[in-house]
Description:
The structure is a single chain. By secondary structure, this protein is an all-alpha fold. The protein contains ten helices and no strands. The chain has helices spanning 3-8, 18-28, 36-58, 65-75, 87-112, 117-139, 157-173, 185-193, 203-229, 233-249.
Amino acid sequence: MHDGETESAPLLGQKDQGPRQGVRRYLIERVDVHYAPLTLLVCCFLVGLIDAASYNTWNVFMSMQTGNTVFLALSTANLPAGSDSFKWARSGVSILSMMLGSFITGRVYAAIGPTRRSTLIASFLLQALCIFIAAILVQTDAVPETNATDKIVLIAIPFLAAQSGAQIATAKSLGFSELPTTVLTSTYNDLASDTNLLAWENPQRDRRVASVIMMMLGAIGGAWLVKGTGTFTTVLWLGAAVKVILAFSWLLFPAEPGT
């Protein structure tokens, strides 16, 4: 055997895992979050899409928990007049589920880092899975779409609210506090109080304005989809599909400089 052949041959008992190791390194490397706001802005669109449809269908928000908190408070006095008495349960379950999603996601990110490519892909795939499960429950009539007072609705709400909590935790962990992807009250306030509001270059202002526009577009889309199709499931299937696309979009992000 020639020397060149000896040097190129793998050691006894070892396999050439070059490509496999390359894929593994690619998945565990940290991504450059410079373009992450693009993904988060699509998340803003999804929040508007799903919340508009869920409020129209079940009179509860899956992401905008300020509204649910007010609903919960009003229900203690059986208000608004004529509203169903089960609204407090839907609002409370949504709030707690969102907090659980944020709690778990935040702890996972704190343990292994939020910018690892595989972590972000897994996080968004799990969020998509939650929406898929809710869509299946509604599509199969396991959860009624037209009767918000049915207690079985509480089965689907946790999946949608928990994925929203995971989405918020992702935005915060990536360092884009101006893109919480759910709350617009603070966004409006931050825009109005920004002393550099009219500056030519102001990336945070630009992202805030874009988040408002995207959430509004999502809500308009959700409203017209429900009106046009007469069903909540169309919105859920679309939301889940977009979340899957966002999950795999992290494969296209460049690595963090210096890694």
